[in-house]
Amino acid sequence: MSKTPVYILAIESSCDDTSASVICNDKVLSNTVANQAIHAEYGGVVPELASRAHQQNIVPVVQQAIQKANIDKKDLNAIAFTRGPGLMGSLLVGTSFAKSLALSLDIPLLDINHMQGHVLAHFIDEEDSKKPPFPFICLTISGGHTQIVKVEDYFKMSVLGETIDDAVGEAFDKSAKILNLPYPGGPLIDKYAKQGNPLAYKFTKPKVGPMDFSFSGLKTAFLYFIQKQEKENPNFIEENLFDICASLQHTIVTILMDKLKNAVKETGIKHVAIAGGVSANSEIRKRLKETESKYKWTTYIPKFEYTTDNAGMIAIAGYYKYLQNNFSESGVSANARMKVNDIN
Fold first, then answer.
1. Integer Cα distance of 325 and 79 in angstroms
2. Structural domain span for residue 283
3. What is the pLDDT of residues 137-146, one digit of tens each?
4. Which of 56, 148, 151, 335 could tie 84 with a disulfide, CB 3.0–4.6 Å?
């Protein structure tokens, strides 16, 4: 592996966060994120508003990332950017900016698969963090994705199972909306669940393939449960919020863990990682850690700052592509529907 300093600027704009990061080899020097608070008014991300906000944020975010890294843009060896998957309007902003900047600096361009970025965040050089050996299993969970991935090399990944309808992050946020919690509600469910009884209420688990997921039915059953309870007691949510959140979270996390167990049994691979925004959930982290003594797994849990959409994970993926001289053509275009195993 190259010991010569390689500086890469990465841009992430797949959804509603504008992020830029500078990496030197596998060490992140800066990781700047601009959030878009406007979506809270609408209870979810509005694509048109997201792309407009990216246009406003991208220049200052990139400038800040370069300044925090304490380098000059002339020191950069390449520009990495998220090609997909994501919202097309948002992706176009990041893609266009990255292509223009690479052209103006006359340096290579690296297009990155967002889902691969989540997985490869585990290879960022951080104190007190261990990097998983190949092959390993990665549970990638976010607002838009839920899948179990077998990772055989930096860019050799295959999906063992995935959701057939809603993603787990979507299930958390929509259930939170049913409870009249503000968007994004997933972190609030996690917060309130810590004070509740996870066995207070029982919700049925969907019957799908051994490594596939389904959260649509659970979400509907949860809605009917709340509606029924509120008919009997209009103050049901207010009086039982902690227990409701704890029980719902317990059900969702149990589903995730059951599928992971099936994946380990099927593959024989006991190195297990989590990635994506929902991997910040405290119950998932706790339950995964427990498997080390219970099932003799070796687990890999990312730092909080590398769980949600961020450019640090795009930068590390870019670094490994750079080492392979796997550069992009100037005509590369955004791809909103990329899969984790799509070869860039």
1. 13
2. 136-301
3. 999 998 788 9
4. 335
